[in-house]
Amino acid sequence: MGLSLTATRILATLGPSSSDKDCIRAMVDAGANAFRMNFSHGTQEDHAERHKVIREVAQETGQPITILADLQGPKLRVGEVEDGVVLKKGDTFIFQLDPIKGNAERVCLPHVEIFDAILPGHRMMVNDGKLQFMVTGVDKGIIITRVDVGGALTDRKGVNVPDVELNISPLTEKDRADLDFALDLGVDWVALSFVQRVSDIIEARSIIRDRAAIMSKIEKPKALEILEDLIVASDGVMIARGDLGVELPPERVPGAQKDITRICRRVGKPVVVATQMLESMIDNPMPTRAEASDVATAVMDGVDCVMLSAETASGGYPVETVSIMHRILEETEKRDGYFENLAYTAIDGHTTYHAVAESATQLAQHIDARAVVAFSTSGATAVRLSRERPPLPIVMMTPNQTARHRMNILWGINSILTEEYASFDLALDGISTLMLENEMGQPGDQVIVVAGTPFGVVGTTNTIRVLNLHNGR
Questions:
Q1: Which pTM does this prediction carry?
Q2: Contact 307, 270 (CB under 8 A)
Q3: 275 an active-site residue?
């Protein structure tokens, strides 16, 4: 099997352009490590078939492949609108709860949560910010606004209210049905859209429990105000630059991306950068230089994973897009100083477990070890080693196939499925055999093994051992 060529992972979205088995297999061969099933589109039957195919490809290739179910979340939209409505800058325009077919003066906005929270001076945006409004007055069931940026208004366009926190659950009735379905399929991660509060994550976890990991999508300015709390409560974070970029001024998005990445790195939570990474490849076989630079910048910041959306879901070049993204990752990670720039000289919030991981990676570098090996049932030890971003391979040995799939989205993790070992000594012999069989080392190579004692107990990362790879005892 060998070691992965890049530490940074690729998450590709499946859709009409990329759902057959040949394409999924080709994207894996090109460098995809994980696939996103976007429940905003397609039927549950579509997603079930894609899940089945991904698992078949994983079985055939022997590679773990992460599957992420991305829930739609609450969608705020205006109602129907007459044909040919164009709003002009400076016009007065009204949003109202009562049903009405929209015209140049008013439109129905069937979301009482907005009316309960909005105040004069707040902004409203429609159609991904193409239309912009300033609230000048609020009365029972109506919001009076001034048009700041005009244009055509058409049916069912999305509404953003960046200045308010809405009293709305991130899980709609549709989301709950999709969540139950995805968990029954056996997805590895669930992405929650429009997270605003820690209670949103707690609500989802009460349903998901330990059946999947939770990835919170940061796409609301209000989420940035409690960013660290949201990250700590989540298993991972997605920087969803689409909606975040609508509600934040564009000049603030790069800084927000770096802030989120920095905190995730510090507390040891995987972070995914999403939206428009290679957007031009929806229609073209090559990206722009600016897009390549955007991907490389995320890699140099140490993100775990970069995501492709419409590029692979509906674009004309899904396999080529994955291949080019992989080439950008590989070239960026080869640059002098890449690993040095990722290393922390001091990390806040140390625990014994993180201190063991840090010590193990430092020891591995001092003795020129071939790899750091995490023996982990749950994957927690692998998470702690990945947080350190060592300049040498991380290999996770686990008897848990679910953990292999779930952890494959993390920076630098290579994994091997093992048997259940009765003792640490037997596990060490097994590690030698499997490392050699999988061409991850040569006889006589030294590796650093990190595990927990009592052996096999989840959550105890407390042991470091230097092991010389050997054939048999």
A1: 0.93
A2: no
A3: yes
